[in-house]
Amino acid sequence: MTAPDFAAPAPGAPAWPTAATFGPQAARNPDLEVLLTDGLGGFALSSLAGVPTRCYSGLVVSAQPPVQRAAQFVSPHEVLRLSTRAGLREVALHALEIAPGVFEGQGLDVLSGAALLDLLPEREQAVGGVTVRRRAFSPRGSGAVVFLYEVQSREPVSLVLGGYFVDRDMHAVHRHAPDLTFSAAGREVAVQGERLTRVTVHAPGAALGTLEPRPFTQRVYYRHDAARGEPDHEYVRGAALWDLSFPAGGGRAALVVQGLTPATGEVTVEDPWAAYAQEAARRRALAAQAQAVTGVRDDLVATLAVAADAYLVRRAQPAGTTVIAGYPWFADWGRDTMIALTGVALLTGRWTEAREILDTFLRTLRRGLIPNNFHEDGAGAGYNTVDGALWLAVALERYVTVTGDLDFARLALPALRELLDWHRRGTDHGIRADTDGLLLAGEGGVQLTWMDVKIGDWVVTPRHGKPVEIQGLWLSALGAEGRLSAALGQPAQFAGALAQAQASFARFWQEGAYADTLDPQGLPDHSLRPNVALALALPDTPATPAQVAAAVGDLETELLTPLGLHTLSPLDPRYKGNYGGAQVQRDAAYHQGTVWPWPLTAFVELLLSRGEVGPARAALHGLMGHVWDAGLGHVSEVFAGDSLRPGGCPFQAWSVAELLRAHVLVSRAEAQRAAAPTGS
What pLDDT shows up at residue 86? Predict the structure, then answer.
């Protein structure tokens, strides 16, 4: 693979698009995955070569954006027919893994390479002098995936197109082939189960032969699900639908697969090639906008800005814009949304969306809390988070600082004050200000911080009492109220609470280090976790230079890896270095040593606060390379503590957002250092 150079382009050179090219062997790697999204929570997912590797692969469509998502399609059925001296030769260009290492179709065997242009995948296959290039994209608001084929051949050749279809919840698999009916009408075929899928072919210049659908059953094996200890195979329905005959020289065709829901049913793709050009232009505009906003005109900003677009989606109820936490299995989570907002919306110039996101969650405040998550069925939300609403205060202040939108600040400030008041006097889950002004939180059987895994009745990292990063967020929320009030010419209402809590924060510094948590009785938990970095990187957390230096030293010595920070020191007897296997094994390791990339930005901020620009850049090198290692153009959710193998979602919002934020912070520091007079 040839990855883009993350150096700044030469003066006058176009900043984007960036082409990441992959040779035959790299393109066949099923761990390289590509994500296409429709802005409604629906998505099309596959390996770079087009091999489905998860139950989420293919096309997933949202019935009530961005939730109630169903899988309706797994892969195109593609067969090339060409004449040879020995007679007619048929080569299946698709590749479905039916057992470990065993494939139906010759798609991988004839693969000559692949590329990403504008983060849109292109695949090239060569057979007997015939070249077939396939591009894919998902038009906005469509619930569709579109495949564009370009056939080059000296002789007449034909291409049979169809698909492999499912009809189920996206988290499930078919134990038996689904009961689907196929109704053909020229260029369109309706695939009807519980849901309706519309398949359309476009083939200008080719002779179109409509085939009578003869559905057959096909077994499909999902290797990534097998690695996660999940059901690893299912039975799908395949059918060849059209036979396209091209003259000498070749031609082009398009296959449009669309799941029809109330949100997508009115959208049609009349000209697939024009729609592709429109989508490519939109992505290039997003890249250019982010480069202009950040002042950092390099490929990494461009790439991550386009990646960030995948997470910004429409929400039907409550209506507004929201952030998908990660693909393929997460919906929108309050905490993740607020942490990711700076990177996915503010640094990319998506300020209208940022305001809508804040408004969406402000309207869902309940007793001072925002939803930890909205339920997948579209009905209701869970409010089991202590940090989500506090991160909202941080995100709100950042939004107003970047945009200067005092009108929104004026509208939001009463809600922020109400939020703080609920926290001060007490709200759900034992969340309340203690007599020392610090924030208490926690109750048995409930997980409230970002280290929030619960296995049955077992809360793996309960952290009840006063977690250190919650205090940093509490201080920042109180400080944000004061600064926003001042910007609006109003008196601060929580200045006393801020001063008291800042004075009490000194209780976390014990025996030359910061405690991770103080329990309800005030006893310290000295587990070395990344949370101290989150606390100290926030603007209102008091710390001396010596205390910051000590914290940086501990983080660097025991938690820092090339891809993020361990969630627990490897020297701790509870450390678990293997993130993998069945869910109970993964969850047990999730915050007990597994490496997370998003807290790395807080560590980078601490380095920059000490003037350590070089070490800050060095800390990001691994993640910058990882952008092309798993979810292409994106950043994974987690990495195994020992092997650093990517795990969790290959496409994670706050991972992308915080890498972008860190890269911009370091790039600006580098520019300032370069511009400083010699010797200064």
Answer: 80
pLDDT at 8 over 50: no
> Where do we find the tokens 């922020």?
416
Q: Note whether 4 and 17 are within 8 A (CB).
A: no
Tokens representing 353 are 């969306």
DSSP 8-state assignment for residue 343:
I
Longest dimension (CA), the chain: 89
Q: Tokens at residue 437, please? A: 């002004």
How is the beta sheet containing 564-566 ordered, strand by strand? 560-561, 564-566, 595-596, 638-639, 646-647
- 3-class secondary structure for 627-660? CCCCECCCCCCEECCCCCCEECCCEEHHHHHHHH
Would you call the peptide bond into 247 cis, given omega within 30 degrees of 0 as the criterion?
no
Collect all residues with Cβ–Cβ distance below 8 Å to 385 and sequence separation of at least 6: 334, 335, 369, 370, 371, 372, 448, 449, 452
Rounded percentage of the chain residues whose pLDDT exceeds 90: 89
pLDDT at 678: 74
Cβ neighbours of 546 (radius 10 Å) = 9
Residue type, 314: R
Of 362, 400, 421, residue with least CA distance to 486? 400
- Where does the pLDDT of residue 4 fall: very low under 50, low under 70, confident under 90, or very high at 90 and above? very low
Task: Provide the mean pLDDT of the chain.
Answer: 94
The Cα–Cα gap between 656 and 675 comes to 28
Would you state the pLDDT for residue 10? 38
Secondary element (H or E) of residue 69: strand 67-84
DSSP string of 183-205? EEETTEEEEESSSEEEEEEE-TT
Where are the alpha helices (H) located in 85-237, listed in sequence order?
223-227
670 pLDDT exceeds 60? yes
> What's CA 484's distance to the chain center, in Å?
31
Contact between residue 654 and residue 307 where contact means Cβ atoms under 8 Å apart? no
- Segment 345-392, tens digit of pLDDT: 999 999 999 999 999 999 999 999 999 988 876 677 889 999 999 999
Give the bridge partners for 132, in sequence order. 125, 151
